[in-house]
Design brief:
Layout lengths: L1 E5 L2 E5 L1 E5 L4 E7 L6 H17 L9 E6 L4 H10 L4 E5 L2 H4 L2 H4 L5 H7 L4
Parallel strand pairs: 4-5, 5-6
Antiparallel strand pairs: 1-2, 3-4
Length: 119
C-alpha cells in the first residue's frame, strides 16, 4: 500500500511502480471481487494524484491498472472507453498464482471452505 495525499485527502493505492522505459508511474489497484465501474473512478483518482504530486516535467502520464477477480467484458470495455486517462482492467485466477510444487502441500479451496463451516 502506498500513501498518497492531495489537498486534505489521504488515499492508499495498492501498488505503485515507475516504468523506466516509458518514463511514467504505474499504479495498480487490486480487487478481490468482480469489476465494478466505481473501481475505475477510484483508480483515476490515484492516477490524478500521482500526476499532480509525483510526476516530473519529463514524465509521461501515469498509467492505471485495475486487477480484479473477474469482469463483464462488455461493461468493462465501455467504461474504460469513457475515461480520459490511460487505464486498463485485467483479471486474475488464484489457481494460476500458486507454483505447481506448492499446490500439493496446500489445502484446496473446498477444504478451506469446509473448515470455515464449523460452528
Amino acid at each position: 500500500e502506498v500513501r498518497l495525499f492531495l489537498g486534505e485527502t489521504e488515499m492508499f493505492c495498492d501498488l505503485l511502480f515507475y516504468n523506466i522505459p516509458n518514463h511514467c508511474y504505474v499504479v495498480i489497484e487490486i480487487k478481490t471481487g468482480k469489476f465494478k465501474p466505481d473501481h475505475l473512478g477510484q483508480l483515476a483518482g490515484y492516477t490524478a494524484t500521482i500526476d499532480v504530486t509525483l510526476k516530473g516535467e519529463k514524465d509521461n502520464p501515469t498509467i492505471g491498472l485495475l486487477v480484479c477477480k473477474n469482469k463483464d467484458e462488455v461493461l468493462a470495455k465501455h467504461v474504460v472507453n469513457t475515461m480520459n486517462v490511460p487505464l486498463g482492467i485485467s483479471e486474475y485466477q488464484l489457481a494460476n498464482l500458486i507454483p505447481e510444487k506448492f499446490k500439493s502441500k496446500l489445502p484446496t479451496i473446498e477444504e478451506l471452505e469446509d473448515k470455515g463451516d464449523t460452528k
